Each structure stands twice: as structure tokens, then as C-alpha cells.
Amino acid sequence: MSSIAAYYNGKTVLITGATGFMGKVLMEKLLRSSPDVEAVYILVRPKAGQSMQERVANMVKSKVFDRVREDCPNFQEKIKPINAELTQPNLAISAKDSQELLSQVNVVFHCAATVRFDEPLKHALLLNVMGTQQLLLLARQMQKLEAFIHISTAYANCNKRNIEEVIYPPPVETKKLCDLVEWLDESIIQEITPKLIGDWPNTYTYTKALAEYLVQQEKEHFNIAIIRPSIVGASWHEPFPGWIDNFNGASGMIIAAGKGILQTVKVNNDAVADLIPVDVVINLMLAVGWYTAVHRPKTVMVYNCTTGGINPFCWGEIGYHVISTFKRNPLEQTFRIPKAQMTSNHLINQYWITVSHKAPAMLYDFYLRLTGRKPRMMKIFNRLHKSMMLLEYFTCQSWEWSSENMNMLMTQLSPEDRRLFNFDVRQLHWSEYIENYCIGAKKYLLNEDMSGIPAAKQHLRKLRNIQYAFNTTLLVIIWRIFIARSQMARNIWYFVVSLCYKFLSYFRASSTLRH
Ligand SMILES: CCCCCCCCCCCCCCCC(=O)SCCNC(=O)CCNC(=O)[C@H](O)C(C)(C)COP(=O)(O)OP(=O)(O)OC[C@H]1O[C@@H](n2cnc3c(N)ncnc32)[C@H](O)[C@@H]1OP(=O)(O)O
Ligand SMILES: NC(=O)C1=CN([C@@H]2O[C@H](COP(=O)(O)OP(=O)(O)OC[C@H]3O[C@@H](n4cnc5c(N)ncnc54)[C@H](OP(=O)(O)O)[C@@H]3O)[C@@H](O)[C@H]2O)C=CC1
């Protein structure tokens, strides 16, 4: 039997961020591969008017659990939700729940974080740094703790070009910074944020860098490992190819391109697009949990979980495969025909934004107004442009991550484990993966049925005809205005028309002769 699966059987696992994208895939794989796991505690907060219990009840109904539901119909009995809020003192966990965790938990996977790039610094610190600190304090008292696995990001040190599997010194003393933001006024923090975060592009990557250092400080107390995934995308194989459930990372942009909304994007076509399938990250997490608990490495092991150095693929190639997949499998009710101008030139990108985003949006909003409806396209584009601006830091440059620890871990696995917990991205076939990603986004994120493809194709044909008709009318109008004002343009026009006429007469004459 697989050593990794066997290790988790009989163990109690604590997961933070279990309601998130990666948390759900982690829970599903753990419960499916180790059905005899003792319990999976998850820290959940009430949200959007739903209690913790309601959220968990809805979550277990999600499609992501279909496979485990088939294999072990009572899988939800293993899930033990704990009411918690990571930004509150003691994580707002009740004394009774806390006691239960302290006496039971063997392995912790810390996934909870705010991943928003525009998160105010105070909140990002509260959750990503202070929340992590509180969890570490709790972990210190866990009597049976064997491994603490912290999920960071490959971009935590994106101010460096070559990123080794080490923890870099933090830019500031974390405690001093947390004290400072605690008493400073929100508006002042907002104002000094760019100065504080220095050469980090956003508060997310900055606070993830600070959290790594905090985690490392606990190395005397328990076994720790840090995993740094790059841009986590739809799953490669598990639970289903192309499974995805949020718009983060590249997914939002891919969908916007498929819907024909995004027609231009600022990327360096030759820069490496370091996408990593979610199931690869989850398999690595479970393998690292096992390795850390069983082999107890003396130092804090950092695992860069990236594809660029092993099986590189560029943004230009991604763009090509996304567009061609959506032409073959169109999304429903697309705004325009999928097409993506990808350039790193700011002026060219601005030109295309004006011509292929703003102008059509204005025209469409004008049409909506004329037909008595509320204009909405410009608003959508403004949001898209804001997202594009926040993401361009990651799409216009490349990084190099070393991945020796991931390779080392692979050599430690039995052939069975390597198959069941596959994180060998050398086997990843990019064009196939991107195709499944796009189709997965259509099915799981937009809830579109594949049987609607013929109608979607029909809609694309209609859009193509509208586009041809519009372009021809525009050309004729411009040309007419031009001809009316310039003798030279008139001469060129007559010359072109007479040339066409001669060609037509020639072809007619030659075809008559052949008959
Ligand atoms: C041909 C194509 C090639 C592609 C070529 C470019 C790929 C370019 C990838 C770079 C990828 C770098 C990744 C760095 C590496 C990590 O570390 S990945 C960490 C993951 N973090 C993220 O990706 C977070 C990025 N997102 C954000 O920070 C915020 O969502 C934004 C972009 C600031 C937008 O904020 P907002 O306007 O307040 O919108 P927000 O409240 O988040 O969402 C409102 C709605 O829009 C949806 N939405 C959110 N973001 C988007 C989006 N981008 N698009 C559409 N809808 C969205 C939400 O689901 C939400 O839906 P509802 O819940 O209302 O139904
Ligand atoms: N997605 C990506 O591309 C990448 C992600 N990562 C890292 O992986 C981890 C998981 O990311 P991902 O699953 O994508 O993120 P999601 O945004 O999908 O999930 C975040 C999770 O954190 C929980 N959470 C947020 N705030 C709190 C809070 N105050 N108290 C309790 N729980 C909270 C959320 O709970 P709720 O449902 O209540 O909001 C949710 O379960 C993060 O640490 C992230 O930094 C690293 C690299 C790339």
C-alpha cells in the first residue's frame, strides 16, 4: 500500500482555509486516498449570512466531492468543523474546541489567507501574518503534533529574480510593523503602504514573505515545512480534469478572453507563465506532510512548487491555446469573437484597449440605452482593466525558482506513491492541460452545459457576420468622407474600381472560352 495514504489513516488533520479553492481539493484527496483518517478538523467562519454549519453543509454537496462521495458515501462524518476567525485573538476558537484540537491534531495544513492583491495592508497583516502567528501559538501546545505545513506563494520573494528554497530575511521586523499598524489611522497606513512594501508589488506577496519568517521561528518547537506554489490553476487530473471554482490567478482572464471581453492584455509573450495545476500542489502537500512527520528533517524545508524550471511554457503559447480552445468550444453568449492581442508594449496595449475594449463597450452601452436598458459594459471593462493592471507585474517578467527539494522528495517516494501522489510536472502536456482548463472553467465555474456548444457556435457565427457588416460599413463611410474631400483619394478609388472591373471581365471571358 501507499506509505503516504497509510500514514494519514488513523491520523487527525487540521486544515485552515478548507472552504477555499485549494482547501477543498486537499480535503477531497485526503478523504479519498486515506478513508480511515481519524478526523479532519476545519476552521470555518460564518460568512455572507450563513452560519458555519450551513456553509459546511453546502460545501460537502459541491461537485468537487463527487468522487469521494462515490468511494466513501459517509465521508462528511470525518469532517469536523470548528468555528474560527483567524483575525481575532486566539482565532476566536472556543475553549472546548481548543482543548479538542490540542489533544487530537497530528498534522496541520495552513492554507487560509487573503489572496487579494488590493487588500489594505492592515487586513493583510492581520490575517496572513498575525493569524499565522496565532495558529503557530496554538500548534505549539498541540500534544501530538507531527508536522506543520505552511502554504506560502512562489511570489513571496518576487523582488528577487532567482529564488532558492530558503527563507529570506524579512524586510522589516514583523512585530514592530504589526504594532505600528495597530495604532495608526487607516488612511495614513494606506498612504504609507507603497513605502512600507518597497519593491514588493502588493500587500499579499509582502505579508506572505513576513509570514514565512514567522513560521521558521517555530522550528525548535515542531516539524515545519513551507510550500510555495506559483500560479495555481485548474486541476490536471483530480478530482476531474479542469476542475476550478474561482476567478483568481489566470482563471478570470482566461474566462474574460473566452467571453470575448478581453481582447488585449499586457503580457510578455516570451515570459514563462508559471502555472501549476491545483492537484499537483495538493499531492505535494500530502507528500510533504508525510515526509516531514516521518523523516523529521532537521531544518525547515522549503518546497518551491513551480513548473517554469522543469517544463516551461510561455504566456504567448497560453494565449494561443486559450483562444483556439474557445473557438472550438465557445462559451455561451460571448460579447465578441475570442481574440487576444498580447503585447508588453504599453502604448500598443493602450491603443488596443481604446479600439477593442472601450469603443465597443461605449457602442454597446449606447445600444442598451437606446433599447431602454441599463448600460453595464463600461463598468465591466473598468473592472477588467483594474484586474489587468494588478496582474501585469506577473505577466511581464520571468522568475527562476530552484526545485531541488521537490525533486529530492520524488526520489523518496515508492513507485506506488509517485503514481497516487503525482507531482512530476515533467509529464504535463501543456496544450492538453490548457484545453481542459478552459473546458473546466466553462463547466464548473460558469455552469455551462457542453450540449449548448452548437448554439454557442451559432452565436459566434452571428457575431462574425455583425463584425463583417460593421467593418464594411465603417470602411465605406470613412472612404466616402475621404473621397468627397480629396482628388487623390478619388483617383485611387477609381483606379481600384477599374482594376477590379478588369479582373472580373478577364475571369468572365476566360471561363466563357473554357466552355
Ligand atoms: C488569452 C488569456 C491569457 C491570460 C493571460 C493573463 C493571465 C494573468 C494571470 C496572472 C496571475 C498572477 C498571479 C500571481 C501569483 C499568485 O500568488 S496567485 C494568488 C491569487 N490571487 C489572485 O489572483 C487575486 C487577484 N484578485 C484580486 O486581487 C481581486 O479579485 C481584484 C482583481 C483586485 C478584483 O477586485 P474587485 O473588483 O473588488 O472584484 P472582486 O470582489 O474580487 O470580485 C467581484 C466578482 O468578480 C469576479 N472576479 C474576480 N476577479 C476576476 C477576474 N480577474 N476576472 C473576472 N472576474 C473576476 C469574482 O469572482 C466576483 O464574483 P461575484 O462573487 O461577485 O459573483
Ligand atoms: N490560488 C493561487 O493561485 C495561490 C494560492 N497560494 C496560497 O494558497 C493558499 C490557499 O489559496 P486559495 O485556496 O487559492 O485561496 P482562497 O481565497 O480560495 O481561500 C482562502 C481561504 O482562507 C479562508 N479565510 C480567509 N480569511 C479568513 C479568516 N479571517 N478566518 C478564517 N478563514 C479565512 C477562506 O475562508 P472563507 O471561505 O470564509 O472566505 C478560504 O477558506 C493561500 O495561503 C494562498 O496564499 C499560493 C500561491 C498561489
UniProtKB/TrEMBL annotation:
Pfam families: NAD_binding_4, Sterile
SUPFAM superfamilies cross-referenced by the UniProt entry: NAD(P)-binding Rossmann-fold domains
EC number, as in UniProt: 1.2.1.84
Substrates-to-products reaction catalysed: 16-methylheptadecanoyl-CoA + 2 NADPH + 2 H(+) = 16-methylheptadecan-1-ol + 2 NADP(+) + CoA; (9Z)-octadecenoyl-CoA + 2 NADPH + 2 H(+) = (9Z)-octadecen-1-ol + 2 NADP(+) + CoA; hexadecanoyl-CoA + 2 NADPH + 2 H(+) = hexadecan-1-ol + 2 NADP(+) + CoA; 18-methylnonadecanoyl-CoA + 2 NADPH + 2 H(+) = 18-methylnonadecan-1-ol + 2 NADP(+) + CoA
Occurrences of domain Fatty acyl-CoA reductase C-terminal (ranges): 357-448
Domain of life: Eukaryota
Cellular component, GO annotation: peroxisomal membrane
Membrane topology: Single-pass membrane protein
Primary location: membrane
Stored InterPro entries: FAR, FAR_C, FAR_NAD-bd, NAD(P)-bd_dom_sf
Keywords (A to Z) from UniProt: Lipid biosynthesis, Lipid metabolism, Membrane, NADP, Oxidoreductase, Peroxisome, Transmembrane, Transmembrane helix
Domain Thioester reductase (TE): 15-285
One Gene Ontology term from the biological process aspect of the record: long-chain fatty-acyl-CoA metabolic process
UniProt-annotated location(s): Peroxisome membrane
Spans through the membrane: 468-486
GO molecular function, one term: alcohol-forming very long-chain fatty acyl-CoA reductase activity
UniProt enzyme class: oxidoreductase
Family of this protein: Belongs to the fatty acyl-CoA reductase family.
Function in brief: Catalyzes the reduction of saturated and unsaturated C16 or C18 fatty acyl-CoA to fatty alcohols. It plays an essential role in the production of ether lipids/plasmalogens which synthesis requires fatty alcohols. In parallel, it is also required for wax monoesters production since fatty alcohols also constitute a substrate for their synthesis.
Protein name: Fatty acyl-CoA reductase
UniProt organism field: Gopherus evgoodei
